[in-house]
Amino acid sequence: MLKLDVYTIQGEKSGKITLPESVFGSAVNLPLLAQAVHIHRQNQRQYNSHAKVRSEVSGGGRKPWKQKGTGRARQGSIRSPQWRGGGIIFGPRSSDKRSKHLSKKMRAVALRSALSLKAGEQHIYVFDSLSLDNPKTAEIRKNLTALFDKGHVLFISQTPSSGFLKSVRNIPGWQYGGMDMLSIYNILDSKFVVLDKSAVAQLSTRFEATAAAVPAAEEAAPAVEADKQD
User: Fold this and answer.
1) CA 206 to each of CA 22, 73, 102, 177: distance values in angstroms, whole numbers, following the listed order
2) In 45-122, which ranges are continuous DSSP H helix?
């Protein structure tokens, strides 16, 4: 079991917490993490290059010359690819973007692997709460800089606070958001991952429910096979 200190927003220790093994203590699947990062970067790519095909270039409304009697090869339009200024064959198209994705099970394994990797590096921190009524950038920087040396910090809360968001968004390398920001890429791109207690509880509930559904499916399989034998 992984036990960590719990910190307050002032950077002081307020207790301890035991992180669930199902989330922060699983085996790290490095090939799957590499695949997840590759897919994320591929989906972020912008396809701006766009070559015109023969139906999109201008001109070519009439036949360049008559079909026979000129001694030259027959031509139907100056839009043809062999003409200068004609259409482009197999050129880049802005509609060529093909988004890739991981399956739901692969995403779950990759997310557990990323969190377990950070936990193994001792770069996971847990706070009582990540909320402020009023923005206090200077105070937050003073209180928390001692905990985090140089490197990106990802703050995750189940219910984001606008006061805390305004406090950290001007600090270079610090990000703050809800559970939707807890992506595989953001975890690996950050040196430290900071969660509040509500985020830890939500992660524990999510993955425990997933793990509980797997044995039920396995128990149902023999009954199906028995029906086939009958």
Assistant:
1) 10, 69, 18, 18
2) 104-120
Full set of structural domains in the chain with CATH: 2-45+99-226 (3.40.1370.10), 47-96 (no CATH)
User: Which of residues 109 and 59 earns the better pLDDT score?
Assistant: 109
Instruction: Give the distance between the most distant pair of CA atoms in the chain.
Output: 95
pLDDT band at 211 (very low <50, low <70, confident <90, very high): low
At residue 209, the pLDDT reads 63
pLDDT of residue 176: 92
**The pTM is what?**
0.73
**Residue 57's closest CA among 35, 77, 37, 71?**
77
Question: And the tokens for 104?
Answer: 């739901």
Backbone dihedral angles phi then psi of residue 194, each to the nearest 5 degrees = -115, 125
